[in-house]
Design a protein that fits this description.
Layout: E1 2-5, E2 16-17, H1 30-35, E3 44-45, E4 50-53, E5 57-61, E6 64-65, E7 73-74, H2 87-101, E8 127-130
Antiparallel strand pairs: 1-2, 1-7, 3-6, 4-5, 5-8
Length: 137
């Protein structure tokens, strides 16, 4: 799994993360999210979303999976516990691992129920639902 270090300033500053789009209130389209991906790859949306609450907003993330080469910190799934991942990133990793281990197989074009999304809005890779606080990014 590809990991990277978040910028020092901002929410979860300096911590290790699974690469993500910036968090915003509007849903990202699949094409927008793929355009911000860490590497060109055949990306597929995993089923479901990951929800996480911060003190002043809720975040809902869709997870995309792909295979490719990218700069960053690569970790075997069985060694993710060796990294200082915040709770949100642990949720994302768990979701991805479960989805990829189940009947879903990312990039399996022969599976019509694979959940692959080619266009349109997905359930917001990184959409924040603010509850009154201003964006800090």
């Amino acid at each position: 799994m590809l990991l990277r270090r978040r910028p020092e300033k901002g929410l979860l500053g300096g911590m290790t993360e699974i690469p993500s789009t910036p968090w915003r209130t509007e849903p990202w389209s699949f094409a927008e999210a793929v355009g911000l991906a860490p590497t060109p790859a055949p990306w597929s949306a995993l089923p479901g979303t990951v929800k996480h609450g911060f003190t002043h907003f809720r975040l809902e993330l869709a997870v995309l999976a792909g295979e490719g080469n990218a700069e960053g910190l690569w970790s075997r799934v069985d060694r993710l516990g060796e990294h200082a991942l915040p709770t949100l990133m642990k949720k994302l990793a768990s979701h991805a691992i479960s989805a990829l281990a189940g009947p879903y197989n990312a990039g399996d074009a022969s599976n019509p129920d694979s959940g692959s999304v080619k266009s349109g809005n997905i359930s917001s890779p990184a959409r924040a639902r603010r509850t009154g606080a201003k964006d800090r990014r």
